[in-house]
Amino acid sequence: MLDEINPVINMIVFAAFVALTLVIVFRVSRRKATENQFYAAGRSFSGRQNGIAIAGDYLSAASFLGICGAIATAGYDGFLYSIGFLVAWLVALLLVAELLRNTGRFTMADVLSFRLKQRPVRMAAALATLAVCFFYLVAQMAGAGGLVALLMGFDDPAATSITIAVVGVLMIVYVIFGGMKGTTWVQIIKAVLLIAGAAIMTLMVLFVVRFDFNELLRMAVEASPEGEAILAPGLRYTNPVDFISLGLALVLGTAGLPHVLMRFYTVPSAKEARRSVVWAIWLIGIFYLFTLVLGFGAGALVGPEALANAPGGENAAAPLLALSLGGPILMAIISAVAFATILAVVAGLAITAATSFAHDIYGSIIKKGQTKPGAEVRVARITVVVIGIIAILGGIVAQNQNVAFLVALAFAVAASANLPTILYSLFWRRFNSGGALWSMYGGLVSCVVLIIFSPAVSGTEKSMFPDVDFSVFPLSNPGIVSIPLAFVLGIIGTFVSKPEADHDVKQAEMEVRSFTGAGAEKASEH
Amino acid sequence: MPESTAIAERSIAMQRSPEFQRLRRTFMSFILPMTVVFLAWYLAYVLIASYAPDFFATRLGESYVTVGLLFGLGQFVSTFAITMLYSRWANRVYDRAADPLAAEMERPVAGGEPDAR
């Protein structure tokens, strides 16, 4: 079956997507963008547009290729990922999105430093943002490399490295020229293509089984060497505590992901932020239902053994399912969509990291808010180039690493370092700068240290360094330790440190503003 | 009077006002129970999958659909349902309570500039 893959068609479809998005990015871009335009697209997107863009940001390669592949080989355990990724949106919708939109301007650090000590809290929030973006970026870049091995028929590492570099350069171009507006349009186009592509494939799979889901499950069970075990939990996660830890990181991580939080500032009001999350939840939820059909479809029609032998391993499930359903052309389209997914997600991450550096570290900490208009945007554009180069190098180094591990790490860091402080500063009146610093640094450091000493890094065959063993921490995801620890540290830090002199005034300002929306940033262009 | 002091004084007065207290109570009395419900339901799901996989493996009659699959789809249904409930509540109840307070906060000081923040 693999010899049917046609690299030329794959490349033409992919080049067409890149050309289309580049044209749009240049049409919407402004050479002399203000901070408001570059970081937040002038807050000019509607709730629906932003909701689609959020889905575009969120449905990364891990969601499409990763979940389809996991369901195809491990059955039920693959489905567990999509449930955590979806339910997590309720935390964002109910507790975070609107209050955050009302309080901040461009970044998560804006909100966290609103009523706390500006410089140290902003620094901690910016570092946590950069850490999450870095892990997420490297994961996506590594995924791009693996995908290319399959799509283009390249097998040698040098060609894969070149492809990672191409992805990095395209990302830099989108963000430098398009800013938030161009990046958002790339997300919207990609989200529509991805969801439409998945819908068409889902219909084709259902058509094969005459719209009988039970028949699909029967075929998947028959094709799998594991038999009926694929219908129940336990094929992939054998340690219950490890699974609970992953479940916690997934459900609490989303509302702390900086590139998701930043999207709430591209709409004119909290009401539009609400609408955008509602749109995002429907799109993401429906997409995950598609992946359930696609995953079992790939298990039934392609088969776990063919996947195990394919370049790219189980990540090839969705493209190979397309090949068996619609031949090389459908495969080219689905592969290009998967590639577009990676490209759009890395662009979203890059603009978040660049904004955090330019706005939080350069503008607010180094220049103490005394920058000329446009100066931050110049720094942000330079930062994008630096981030692009770091991501290319990281992606090349990590190209054989486990992508899901890096994404789960990004979620765990977001849930430990960011979420406790976001919730405390919105809802706990007594919370102060001491609590924020203890919680953010404690969550960040404990999370990263536990990962380093986990079996994900050393000690087992699947580890990053299989030949050495310093895995003293038994779980591959640190969430169950680092998330509660960060919440507790926030409480301890608050009680052992003194509040600022203007604590009560600032707290009142933030609370009134977050709950009523008074004084929130308005749209600047119409 | 400098603008920042004006905002500070207004905010403190607003925070202490019975209208704002009521708004915060409205928010908490909807959000807290909802959050407890969906987190508990999700944790129950994760715990059953971890410690009682055999229960999730139970097939419904002759079909290949398992209890676990139904519970998983149940998480989708509950997420969609809570999203719609929240959206309706926020549009009908919360905005109606919050908007007048926002207008009150942004009302120009007698004869002065409107609060430009």
Would you write up a description of this structure?
The complex is a heterodimer of chains A (526) and B (117). Chain A is mainly α and 526 residues long. Chain A has one domain (2-516): Sodium/glucose cotransporter (Up-down Bundle). Chain A contains 19 helices and no strands. Chain A has helices spanning 7-28, 35-40, 47-58, 61-74, 76-103, 108-112, 118-151, 157-208, 213-223, 240-253, 258-263, 270-301, 304-309, 317-366, 375-397, 403-427, 433-452, 479-496, 503-516. Chain A is globular. The termini of chain A are far apart. The mean pLDDT of chain A is 88. Mean pLDDT of chain B is 89; it is low at 111-117. Chain B starts with a helix and ends in an 11-residue tail after the last helix. The radius of gyration of chain B is 23 Å and the shape is elongated. In chain B, helix 2 packs antiparallel against helix 4. Chain B has one domain (3-106). Classes of the chains: A mainly alpha (526), B mainly alpha (117). At the A-B interface, helix 5, helix 9, helix 10, helix 12 and helix 19 of A face helix 1, helix 2, helix 3 and helix 4 of B.
